[in-house]
Amino acid sequence: DTGVSQDPRHKITKRGQNVTFRCDPISEHNRLYWYRQTLGQGPEFLTYFQNEAQLEKSRLLSDRFSAERPKGSFSTLEIQRTEQGDSAMYLCASGTTTGEQYFGPGTRLTVT
Amino acid sequence: KNEVEQSPQNLTAQEGEFITINCSYSVGISALHWLQQHPGGGIVSLFMLSSGKKKHGRLIATINIQEKHSSLHITASHPRDSAVYICAGPNFGNEKLTFGTGTRLTIIP
To answer: What is the three-class DSSP state of B79?
Structure first.
């Protein structure tokens, strides 16, 4: 257990539905990252927060995706109008300015 | 060409063998991470190193900053070491990770 939790662990949804994932980082960490991993591939960066500010978003993050980190604590990642291509493992990592990152267990999304 | 490349992509070895996984990177990074991912599981950070060598149990990681190359070694490999090993480089400043494609390691009893 790294101290980073994600909820839910698995989500099956029908195409067109909206889904929301939550990440609870290690409490004293000010950085939070979202990554996406498709089957057989390495993870890819989606977005990152320093405290409550979203400082960078990948071009992978289409306008159907939105992420928030209110109060600089937990974060949510919402996908609207899901598509089959959104099926992936969504990983959250909690980090410090020294560069260490601790990963959560991931949320596996399946869009049918 | 990926900014972070690993070799081999797949590796099968007998229990007890010495294992080496290589990582080369072309991005400017502040350090290099070695990560372990079990099937269906989350990612565990094994090492973060910016120079020299680190050791933890049977795992050893080395990095050569000038050559932009890192290696992960496993001594006295065991079936429970079977996993995907991923190297990743954090960008200067925001530390977001660029990942290699991973090496799938299978240790046969």
So the answer is: helix
Is the pLDDT confidence value at B1 over 90? no
Q: What percent of chain B has pLDDT over 90?
A: 63
Name residues 30-49 of chain B within 8 A of A (Cβ). Answer: 30-31, 33, 35, 40-45, 48
Q: How far is CA B31 from the centre of its chain?
A: 13
The helix/strand/coil state of B80 is: helix
Residue A109 banded pLDDT, cuts 50, 70, 90: very high
Closest CB to A101: pick one of B42, B97, B102.
Answer: B97
Q: How far is CA B67 from CA A51, B27, B55, B63, in A?
A: 35, 12, 21, 9
Distance, in angstroms, between B17 CA and closest chain A CA?
Answer: 25
CB contact under 8 A, A104 and B44: no
Cβ of B83 under 8 Å from any chain A Cβ? Answer: no
Give pLDDT tens digits for B86-97: 999 877 666 788
User: Which pLDDT belongs to residue A100?
Assistant: 85
Of the candidates B30, B90, B102, the beta carbon closest to that of A42 is on B102
Full DSSP string of B19-32: EEEEEEE-S-BS-E
List the one residue out of A45, A39, A57 whose CA is nearest residue A92.
A45
- What's the number of CA atoms in the CB half-sphere (13 Å) around residue A71? 5
